[in-house]
Structures are given as C-alpha cells and as structure tokens.
Description:
The complex is a heterodimer of chains A (351) and B (351). By secondary structure, chain A is α/β, with parallel strands linked by helices. Chain A contains 13 helices and five strands. In chain A, strand 1 (49-55), helix 3 (61-66) and strand 2 form a beta-alpha-beta unit. In chain A, helix 7 packs parallel to helix 10 (239-263). Chain A is elongated. Chain B contains twelve helices and five strands. A four-stranded mixed beta sheet of chain B has the order 2-1-3-4, with helices on both faces. Chains A and B meet through helix 2, helix 4, strand 4, helix 6 and strand 5 of A and helix 2, helix 3, strand 4, helix 5 and strand 5 of B. Strand 4 (111-118) of chain A pairs parallel with strand 5 (146-153) of chain B.
Amino acid sequence: MSVRRVAILLGKDFKYGSRGFVFIMAIVAPLLISLVLNLVFGTFFSQTAKLGINDQGDSRLVDLVSASDSVQTRTYASTDDLKRAVEAGAVDMGVALPENFDEDVLSGNSIVLPAYVWGESLAKNRGILLATVNSAVRQLAGQEVPVHIETTTLGDAQSVPWSDRLLPLVLLYAVTIGGIMVPASLMVDEKQKRTLAALAITPATLGDILAAKGLMGVIMALVMSIVIMLLNQAFGVQPGLLMIVLGLGAVLAALFGLVLGLLVKDINTLFATIKAVGLLLYAPVIVYMFPGIPQWIGKIFPTYYIVQPVVEISQQGGAWPEVIFEVSILAGLIVLMFVLVTMATRRLKQQ
Amino acid sequence: MSWQIVRALIAKDFKLYFRNRFIALITVLGLVAYIAIYFVMPQTVDETLELAVYAPVLPPILEQAGSQGLELVLMESEEQLKEAVVGGEYLAGVVVPPDFMDKLMSGEKGQLDVYFGADTPEELQDSITVLLEELAYLQTGQMLSVRVSPEVLGRDMVGIQIPMRDRLLPMLAVIILMMEMLGLASLISSEVVGRTVQALLITPMTIRGLFAAKLIMGVSLAFVQVMLFMAVTGGLSQQPLIIILALLLGAIMVTGIGFLVASGSKEMTTVIAWGMPAMIILSVPAFGVLAPGTVSDWVKAVPSYYLVDAVYQAANFNAGWSDIWDNLLILLGFDIFLVWLGITVLGRKFR
C-alpha cells in the first residue's frame, strides 16, 4: 500500500465526492437534526404541567407562578387567545386574572377565578397547576406555610433530561451517515461507473482504494461527531478520552461502510440495506431514550459500544476505568470488521 | 385505454418490485419494525403521582389527596418506604411524624420528611412539595378568598387518556405511506432513465393507461401495507370504514406526490433528496398529535393534516362520519389536485 497513492485517491474523493448527495447529507442532516431535536424534542416529552395566564391587570401572581419550577408558564394577550391555547393543548390549564386582582386578594374580597382546563390534561397536571396557583395566591395574600418540608434524595441514579437522551441519537446519526454511507456510496459509485475497474489497471491497488474510502469515512464521522458534541456542549471533562472513543467509533463505522460498499452492487440496494439494518444500528439509542426498556437489551447491538462510552464520558463525567470494558469490546468489533473487510475484498478480487 | 394492457403493466411492476428478494424482504421487515415500535411504546398513561406514605397517625386531609392527582400508598415502616422509593416503585415517600396533627392544631408548624428517588425529575419534586403544602393549608383550615372555577374545554379525558402509542399510530401510518411513495418514485425514475417508459409508449399502451397502472400500483402498495399495520396494531377496532377510506385517500395522496418526486429525480439518491423534504413536511401534522399545541394553524395547509386528524379522531375518539366528513372531503380535494399535478409534470417528462 502506498501512502502517496492513498492521499491522491483521498484528495480525489474529497474533490469530486463532496458534490454528491450523500456527502452533503452527511454534513447537513446531522446539523439540522441536532437543531430540530433540541428545539422541538427538548421539551416534546416534558411532563411539566403547563399553565397559561391572561393578565388583564398587572398582577404579581404571574411572576410568582413563573418563578415556580413545578410548572411552565406562558402568558396570553387576551382571554380568547388563552382559550384557543387550552383547546389546542398548548397549555394544560389557563387562568384569566381580572383587573385589580392583587388588590382584591389583599383586601380579602371573594373572587371567582375562571380557569380553562384542556380535556386531555392529566389528572396530576391539573392537581399540580391548581396547587401552584393556590400557592401563589396564598403568597400574595401573605399566608404563612403551615408546614416545613424536609426533602432528601435517595439512591445514586440521576434523571436524564430529554435533551441528553436525544444526544446519542444525533451522534449516532452523524457517525452512521458520515462513517458508513459516505465510504459505502463512494465504493458503489466507483463500481457502477466502472471506474473501479479502470483504477485496477493503474498502480493503485484495491487496498489503496479501500484505505482512501475508509479514511474519508473516518474523517467525516469524526469531524461531524465532534461538531455535534460541540453544538450540544457535551464534550465533558475528558475531551481526550472522548476523542479516542469517537475516533474508534468512526473507524468501526467506516469499516462497516467498506463492507457494504464491497458487497452491494448498486446505490438502490445500498439504501435498502441501510433501511433494513437501520433498526439494528439505532436500537441502543432507542433503549437509552426509554429507561423503562430493560437496558441490557442495548448491549446486544454493536453500536451500543460507541454510544455508551460517549454517554458515560460526556454526561456522567466518566473516565478511563468506567469505559475500558466497552472500549475493549469496541476495539474487538473493529478487529472483527477488519476481518470482514478482508474477506469481502478477496471476494471482490475473485469476481 | 385498454384495461388488459394496464393489468399486464401492473403485474409487471409488481413482479419487478418483488423479484428483488432483498427489496421484498426489507419491505416486510420495515413493516414488522413499525409494528414492533408500536408495541414497545407505553400502552397506558400514568395519570397520577404515586407516593408512598408512612403515617402512624394519618391526617384526614390525605384521604382527599386523590382529588389533587395524588395516589397514596401506605407503608408499614419508614424503612419500607425508603426501600420502595430507592427501588423506583414510587416517585417519592412522605413520612408524617406522629405529632404532626397535634402541631398543626396547636398552631405550630408541622414537619414532613419527603424522600425522592434520585431519578425523580426536579420539576416533579417541586410539584410534590407544592401539593403537600396545599394539603397542609387545607388541613389547617386556611381558606382562600379566591375560588378557582375550572371549565373543561373539549372532551374530558381524565381516566381515559390516550396512550403514547395510540398517539403515534397516525404518524407511523403516514411514514409507511411515505416510504412506499419513495419506492414508487424510485421505480418510475428508473424506468424513465432506462427509457423503458418511452419503449412502452410505442406499444399500444397509452400515456393514460401508463399512469392508471402506476396509480393503481402505487396506491395498492401503500394501502395494503398501511392496512396491515393498522389491522395488527388494532387501529381498525373503532370506525373501521372511516379509517379505511382515510387511508385509501392517503395512499392516493402519496402516489400523487410520488409522481411529482419521480418527475424531478434521476435515480435513488435524487428520489431521496426530493422525497425527504416531502416526508418531513407531511410528518409535521403527526407531530402535532404527539405533542399537542406545538404546531399552529398553518399546519392545515399540509395535506396529511386531514389524514392524520381523521385517523386520530376515528381511532381514538370513535369520531363518526358527521365529525370528519369535512376532513375526508378536503383530503379528496388534495388527492385530485396532487394526482393531476403529478401526472401533468411527469407526463411532460415522458414526452
């Protein structure tokens, strides 16, 4: 294998391959998905009760409720807007505060506060919202809390917010598209356009070609996964270790991409293959997103050994001792995939 | 237009589609995967906050906790309570000291010890604290001059909430339909590129017959799969006729979009490049069902809104013809427009 030839082939792939749809998708799609997931899904499955307020005066109640962590508060300009939001389910409950509400509360006047409740709102959310509004009114009225609540947290596990749960999904997507699809599509393209056969009559060996495509996949997967980690501010306190894990993940993905590229005949079959194995690739991420699913299921799938060390390092402050087992298996998978690449290469040479 | 020729062309298209055993296999696997996703999702809705309580003397107000969205389970000892919380059986455990009621009655501040599981989200910890404070206020007889008067907007779903997997049903149905749109677009574009379409048009096959065959083929592929999915997941248990009609109209809609995508595509990659934005746009209304209130009224401009809404309303709320005839009519209008547009644009490419 010649390093110079590999570099020339890699340069050619960057120059011409970067105009391709898969290459563009490998860059744009993870960025877009990261953005959309953070914007939409970050609060998508939030269980926090939502309260809408239409304040017709200038009540302090709005500030008191907004300061509470137990509810999310949104304000509306009119009662009609508030009712529409409740009907659409944008908030679980909406209250319309009349003019001079604070003065009436302080003077002890009897007030009936209209509240609109979304029909699909959960019973617990209704209870929480009612208690939160009452609590704020009591604060406004100057009532003293008759109880002191001493809270203690038991156990070691920490709750994982949705924004964190979704990070592995975006990361794996970046690795999959960049690491698997780019080298695989480049190989398939060479086969379909018969440029692979043309290259065979030059001094470049099949090893050189595979090394160039594989490197391309590693670079794409590594760069995009680093960008995703930076965008999500998830580099953690062990950036060096994280880079090693991301690098190994990129190598595994690129080797798998080469296996696909060597075995698959055309681009349609390649996409169909990715569609078929997609569930296997993303299964550990789905398991991670839903803690209710037994977590051991994720360990069955190879990509678990990319995702888990990254999560451990970036979200749980893990260091080398905590990830050595998973990283060792990842290294083993790389060796196994390398053997598969060698076998697939022999098969292609025989053809 | 000869129906005999149309029938022959449909048979040929189906043969071509399923001759590739791999494509046939992944079509089945894809369907199985969507069904699996449905069954993995939670089938119940956790409507209440389950708390463990250890109270040698039970304050009377705790018997009314159910009205606040709390479900209290009495423990025999503080140790049992802590074990249950650490084991994740309850979000929190409340220890009520024996002298709690005496203190409240004598005007002193009572104390409650609340134990949270480490994975109990912070907002829920705050919510539980607020609820317990409110119960303490009520226990001491501190009433409010403000009475919140709730009015439920829409159907009151307390106790009959829709599980996440049933909310997901219309979205999965749309995805299945859209995937077949990609398959149809890919098939047509490969025929255009391979010039088999032009070859067909110099036979007795008319362009009208050609489109009739493609339309029937596309609708059948999408409709049969989505019907299978709905049947297996129990999505046809309520208002089956309405759902079947809505899905048929949905299949026609995606076939029309498939024609449009095929008209702008040369091979699989461009089919995906055009198809993905279409898929994303058509999926937006389904996100609105998953997370109510996240999409605004402009979503009604997306044709799939009327499919998603019809299926969601019929499958989950037993909505009848009088409730959703307008959805079906608008969907039919979109179908006619999209199929006409698809045939017009693609027809130009054939000529």
